[in-house]
User: What shape does this take?
Amino acid sequence: MEQRQLLIDKYHYQEVHFLDKGWSIDQKWIGIKDQVKHLIRISDIQLRQRRKWEFEQISRLSQQGWPVNRPLLFIEEEDLVIGIYMYIEAEDLQATIHTLPESMQYDMGYFAGEALSAIHALPIETDSINQYEKMSKKMLKHIDVFNQKDLHFHNDHLVIDHIKKHLHLLSDRPLVFQHGDYHIGNMLLVQFQHAAIIDFNRCDIGDPYEEFDRAYFFSRRHSIPFVIGQLDGYFKFGIPDDFHQLMKLYMCHNMISALTWSTQFSIRHTEELMQYVLMVMDDYDQLRSDIPKWLR
Assistant: This one.
């Protein structure tokens, strides 16, 4: 049965509208039942365990009072799984943050940093994970793909060399539950008061510091005060000594992986991400600095 019809016939939604946002492989719908809006995420049955884990972790955050899409129901159909959440009436933070005073942008970021700390405190099992092996293989694989696709940008050899020479930094890192795509584009502005956190579909287990790579890559372009606020809210004004070197490694990897990922889509998308890459290279003075210039 076609998804929209399934939601109407079996789950009794009076209105169902396709939500064409983001890059998720899930199908997202807004369903209206008795004048109440729900966010409905439909995934292939092969993602059942992952989507159930995601649903449970978001439930924990919701119970703690954090502004997320409150989970309502997790359903297993024959060939798909359905996650039903409360819909949040709000504006996209990315589209509106430039209209806010810088002090409010900072406050939004500070709140996002506190929320990220709560996300990282969620319970996980890490016994079977070798994070060094997982991340080093991932980084080297992306370098191989970058070279195979004959991608280039100014001083890309410095980025690749930096990754290869600093893989040892990945050893003995703590592991946490990760949102997986934590940046301003996955947040909503609720009544001009605080940010709501959405789109956990890339959630994973990994280094807590890695979660800041999207802030340095995407959020930074829209609001530097927001990113500084996020750092302050997370670290409570005490950034650890090892943070900057690890972030530089993660940003080098992010530049390579973003461009390789973009080749799945249009040339325009690759060109757009290239502008982000060049921005990051400038932030780090072509890798001569360990700290981006907007934070120094």
